[in-house]
Amino acid sequence: GMETRSCGVRHMCALTLLLVCVWLGVTSPGAAEKLGCSNLPLSPRQRELCRRRPFLLPSIQDGARLAVAECQSQFRHERWNCSTNQEPHVFGRELTSGTKETAFIYAVMAAGLVHAVTHSCSQGNMTECGCDTRLRGGGSVAEGWHWGGCSDHIQYGTWFSRKFIDNTVKNTSTSRGGYTLSTMNQHNSEAGRQAIDKTMSTDCRCHGISGSCAVKTCWRMMAPFERIGAYLKDRYEHSVQVTERSRRKTRRKDQHRLHVDKHQLIFFNKSPNYCLEDRRRGVAGTRGRRCNRTSTGPDGCNLLCCGRGYNTHVVRHIQRCECKFVWCCYVHCRRCESMNDMHTCK
């Protein structure tokens, strides 16, 4: 079908659809729902899943938008700033390059889908899922607390994310000394889902006379997505290079692959330095990017501009200042001008 020719790897097709949903959402909110299951670039399995659960299309779109925005927020100061194209493929070559960046994209997209579906469940927007009632009634009443409230039901969102992107629930690690691009992507998607579980917190509310907190009702909540993004960025920084199965014959010493934890992100190939534009590889380069002259971090002009130097422009900034409340009833402000230096990479 169409999806096999355009994507090659079925697992990548699933993610491409998520990104198509982002693109449609940016160009026309609600466009994915209007197109319906039959007109979206879905595999037969996904089309059936969509046909049975069309009410999940808004969550698919929300989850994808959430993930792309968080990716760009986490990498805004880096040479690779999670740049996207204004087209359905969105991330371009980065989806198939097998680098740490590929790993992060798959993890954050799978996590975004879990987060959006779970949020919709907790809001009571769906008949198939609601709050997680398994904890109800437990806890230590003797110690003055019990489980109650509306715990986030991440199991449904996790199940749907696996079904939609991976079409598998089994462990994707292999014992034969290597991964394929598909199993690497599945491993990283699962690491993204695990991040939702890992970052969950317990929230409580007090009960008692005058708020004395004689008894507390507690429930489990997902972390805000910024915290999940920061957690995955840390996993990206500590990602593990693994062997590709197709290269096994030439790499005998790599046959006993180190055990990779399900929370770790994995990659095959070292990343390009992202310094210079390379259209063939889909690298935008850092020319024209704004940098911080005084920073020693990745956003500093030396690192971000890759030693090429930077241009300085003077930018006029106008804002309201010295505001005072005048009786009665308005605020009077002065108009202040400042001249600031802006540095951009050569």
From TrEMBL:
One Pfam family in the UniProt entry: wnt
Highest taxon of source: Eukaryota
Coiled-coil intervals, chain numbering: none
GO molecular function: cytokine activity; frizzled binding
Presence of keyword Lipid biosynthesis: no
Location in or out of the cell: Secreted, Extracellular space, Extracellular matrix
GO biological process: bone mineralization; bone morphogenesis; bone regeneration; canonical Wnt signaling pathway; cell fate commitment; embryonic skeletal joint development; hematopoietic stem cell differentiation; neuron differentiation
Keywords, alphabetical: Developmental protein, Disulfide bond, Extracellular matrix, Lipoprotein, Secreted, Signal, Wnt signaling pathway
Residues annotated as signal peptide: 1-32
Family matches, as InterPro entries: Wnt, Wnt16, Wnt_C, Wnt_CS
GO cellular component terms given for this protein: extracellular space
Family, as annotated: Belongs to the Wnt family.
Function description: Ligand for members of the frizzled family of seven transmembrane receptors.
Name of the protein this chain belongs to: Protein Wnt
